[in-house]
Automatic annotation (TrEMBL):
Top-rank taxon, per record: Bacteria
Name of the protein in its database record: DUF2975 domain-containing protein
Alphabetic keyword roster: Membrane, Transmembrane, Transmembrane helix
Transmembrane segment boundaries: 21-39, 69-92, 112-131, 137-158
Amino acid sequence: MRRTKIISKILFYISRTLAMGYLLMIVYAVVCLLTGWNVQSATSGGAFVNILFPFTNSPFLIIDTAPTYIIFSFLLPLVLYSVFFWLASEVFKVFHQPRLFSSENVVHLRRFYLFNVFIPGAAALLSRPFTVVEKDIWLLVIVHFFLGIFIYFLAAIFTQGLQLQKEQDLFI
């Protein structure tokens, strides 16, 4: 179990860092787009803009200027992956807690599987009238769905383990 705790702690920090990185990218991009700071036209017609790395002239993000693209193809995926990695970090945190079967740990697993089962598909369907949802996106939706189902089974095991642990505490 020691190896599991070490691996889960490493994955916790990696996924938490990714969540924070996505969040910072979102905040930076929104500030740049709203203020025009560090934004330059990428094409002569102005259909695309470059968001530059802070205090440089190097492009960081290349974005279509259509509002539907910005909302549904840029911000929505970044927000959802920020949430995904945050919830994943909470799942990894479950495995380096002193008490594995706890109601708090079951809640973290439940949030993660509900997010993965329902949100990617709903986001793709919501985006569909406004932007082209490519085949690769639907494949990601399917991958997230199966990940959610797997974590659902893990949450069910944790729920049963919690119940058995409570029953054992009653007998002691």
